[in-house]
Amino acid sequence: MRDCYLKKYTVGILGNSPMLAEMLLKSGVGEVHLISKVVSVEEMRRELGIYHHDVGDFLETSGFRECENLTIYRDVLKGSKGCDILIDCGFREEGAKIAKRLGVPYVTEPEVSVLLPEALEYEELKLSKAFESAEELHVVRILQGIETLKCLRGGLLPALSPEALKFDEKSGEIKKINLI
């Protein structure tokens, strides 16, 4: 069973994304490290699982911390150690540098691409700066989860950098693009 195979992996989510953490845990990933930063009003409006009472605080103080196999960290380095793959949910360049230093793949946002440690530098990629809407953010989180699972399961190739997946909100399509 694939779920048993995924139990050996630890995934690091760099940023506040309860939806992505829950998706990965329900997919069978063994452990998720969520590296929280102070929750903003914008995140509360866009991220599923973040509420008004979370704004201005870290997610570890909310009821979300009670999920099994989920550890919430405030320290990026401490939370990233031991992870097999890191997912960017707001840390951008800092997260890419940590992933490279640890020698693990890094899943980018808002265009979803898997950046391998020995491949292109994060700074070489032409990524958008922000999300257009909550709908775009939700689709990106789902794509990040799918591409992460592709990396961990093997078989299907993820979108490896400089190739990326981009959600086109106007057409509702997911398109393959080049980030260079």
Describe this structure in words.
This protein has helices at residues 2-6, 18-26, 41-46, 76-80, 92-102, 134-153; strands at residues 10-14, 31-35, 70-73, 85-88, 106-107, 114-115, 163-168, 173-178. The chain contains six helices and eight strands. It is an alpha/beta fold and 180 residues long. Helix 2 (18-26) runs parallel beside helix 6. Strands 3-2-1-4-5-6 form a six-stranded mixed β-sheet. It has a two-stranded antiparallel sheet with strand order 7-8. Strand 5 (106-107) and strand 6 (114-115) form a beta hairpin.
Summarize the amount of helix as a percent range.
25-40%
Rg over alpha carbons: 15 Å
DSSP strand (E) fraction?
A: 15-25%
Structural class: alpha/beta
> Order of SSEs, N→C?
HEHEHEHEHEEHEE
Number of helices: 6
E-strand count: 8
Strand order of the largest sheet: 3-2-1-4-5-6
Poorly predicted regions: none
Main beta-sheet strand count, sense and barrel state: 6 strands, mixed
Q: What is the molecular shape?
A: globular
* Average residue pLDDT: 87
Calculate the terminal CA-CA distance, rounded to whole Å.
38 Å
